[in-house]
Design a protein that fits this description.
Low-confidence stretches: none
CATH class: Alpha Beta
Strand order of the largest sheet: 1-2-3-4
Number of helices: 0
Mean pLDDT: 86
Shape: elongated
CATH topology: Nuclear Transport Factor 2, Chain: A
Strand content: over 45%
Structural class: mainly beta
Radius of gyration: 15 Å
CATH architecture: Roll
Order of helices and strands: EEEE
Number of strands: 4
Length: about 70
């Protein structure tokens, strides 16, 4: 894709934890981020996804680093 040359960082998703109810889904997603210069970081996204009249939408996202950048 054309944007890949401008955004060479890669997010590798490793684990997804799901806690669902009728109205919302809470997700914790672990990831490894590889920067274009080779630096790496490990982290987690905590997401809340809610059901709307037009389908499921992300209502909140929080990123937390769980390992320092190397």
């Amino acid at each position: 894709m054309a944007h890949e040359a401008r955004h060479p960082a890669a997010h590798h998703i490793t684990n997804i934890y799901v806690d669902a109810s009728d109205a919302e889904v809470r997700l914790r997603t672990r990831l490894i981020l590889i920067q274009h210069d080779g630096r790496a970081e490990s982290g987690e996204y905590d997401d809340v996804v809610v059901r709307t009249d037009t389908g499921w939408r992300v209502a909140a996202r929080v990123y937390r680093s769980i390992a320092p950048r190397a």
